[in-house]
Design brief:
- The structure is a homodimer of 250-residue chains.
- Chain A is an alpha+beta fold and 250 residues long.
- The first copy, chain A, contains six helices and twelve strands.
- In chain A, the strands form four sheets. In chain A, strands 1-12-2-8-9 form a five-stranded mixed sheet. In chain A, strands 4-5-6 form a three-stranded antiparallel sheet. In chain A, strands 3-7 form a two-stranded antiparallel ribbon.
- In chain A, a hairpin with a 4-residue loop joins strand 5 and strand 6.
- The model of chain A has no long low-confidence stretch (mean pLDDT 92).
- Chains A and B meet through strand 1, strand 9, strand 11 and helix 6 of A and strand 1, strand 9, strand 11 and helix 6 of B.
């Protein structure tokens, strides 16, 4: 029967700007004893990609705008962090004490525009922005490993949800596998047409990988997955974004 | 390094009302060659539990109320289905063509109160309601298998999300593992206190299992998971529900 096997790669070092991420992944795969096969998927934590891409910003160099200062007072957050959130966002959806929910420039509805202050460095005082274009980051890593196998790549992050407690791993970027699989026209075991027509495959896999990554000091930012039971294709993280015109809960 | 291994149980028959679900699961575990170990988790599709619990309703016996008829006109749905949705719901949040989003009596914000018309039977004309109390269903299956090992059990279903396309596997009921893990006070690799404080572990595992279950004619409703890297405890699906007072998007 089908199995899905997720394995954390061993001994990936702290990644810094300009590192050769494909080379580090190759070394970690070898260390873990994994030979990539066609259809395997690598799920990479957003933090690693952001660091490699130099998306680290010193808060001391950020000049908060009047709007950021105002929003910082409402949300009780650092005005320089709020300034970065505003620069990364298309729209602020909710602001109240300890909470800013925005539409990120790239369409994700999320807290703090995905900007993170934890796990950044020991000195503190820095923020880490999301990768500039996670789909491109995925495609780039996929291409750099294409000599090994035809794999899929996901860059994931932890997202809150509107009505449920706790965060879950969610796909920001996708390459080489579907973001969403459309089952329209497929039939169930009794020949009836399915009512659930779209499955967010990349989000389900991002969540599975997140379980193994941990959130704290585990240091397991790259997860190898084998046995994903969906056909490969050129998918994207954009497929997972509901268009604003279809949004009932903004 | 840590691995998470998910395996679909082999040859589970179509479940009907009153079936001995623990016995069917025992047989399927044996057929698949899995000996349960402490800390393993079984993820069971809601449909199987609902069928076993007799939550199947013939639409021909449902008398739609005036409100159901009105809402059916707005949503272009069968008025008898809408009547069942209303009976299962505490509140209707959104209604428009092809969409009803409600708060289920048990607190889930979801489309159609989770009522399903697919995969029910070949004759059609029946609806399948969610299990009456999924946490109790999980606890019951867990207790019935306790002689084999101290396992966790999740009953999952596919949920849509406010801002993202596609459904993902989501935990309705939980027993023997955390619904949400609270990381407050834990520190990251650099000793900084974590900002993300709650992880929806049961939802992440529900999503992972959903990947293997498939949505159509695969017939893989029970998934075995080994290697969940969180300590066991008496969790529940209720932990995953955001209280209405904290809801910013209703």
């Amino acid at each position: 029967m089908p199995s899905l096997i997720l394995t954390a790669l061993e001994g990936l070092p702290e990644v810094v700007e300009g590192d050769d991420l494909p080379a580090l992944v190759r070394e970690a795969l070898a260390r873990t004893g994994i030979a990539l096969a066609d259809g395997d998927v690598l799920v990479v934590a957003q933090k690693v990609v952001s660091k490699q891409e130099g998306r680290r910003v010193a808060l001391s160099g950020v000049e908060p705008s009047a709007r950021a200062i105002e929003l910082a007072a409402v949300t009780r957050k650092d005005a320089r962090l709020v300034e970065l959130v505003l620069r990364e966002s298309a729209e602020v959806l909710r602001a109240k004490p300890d909470v800013i929910v925005v539409e990120h420039r790239r369409g994700w509805i999320m807290a703090n525009a995905g900007i993170d202050l934890s796990n950044v460095d020991a000195g503190g005082g820095h923020a880490l922005l999301l990768p500039e274009d996670p789909d491109a980051s995925c495609a780039s890593l996929r291409a750099a490993l294409a000599d090994l196998a035809d794999i899929g790549v996901i860059v994931n992050d932890s997202f809150g949800r509107a009505w449920r407690n706790g965060v879950t791993g969610t796909a920001l970027g996708v390459a080489g596998l579907p973001g969403v699989v459309d089952l329209r026209g497929r039939r169930d075991r009794f020949g009836r047409e399915l009512r659930t027509t779209e499955v967010a495959v990349a989000d389900e896999l991002a969540a599975a990988a997140s379980l193994l990554m941990g959130q704290a000091d585990e240091g397991r930012p790259v997860i190898h997955a084998r046995g994903v039971p969906y056909a490969r294709r050129d998918g994207s993280g954009r497929e997972l974004l509901r268009p604003k015109s279809m949004d009932m809960f903004r």
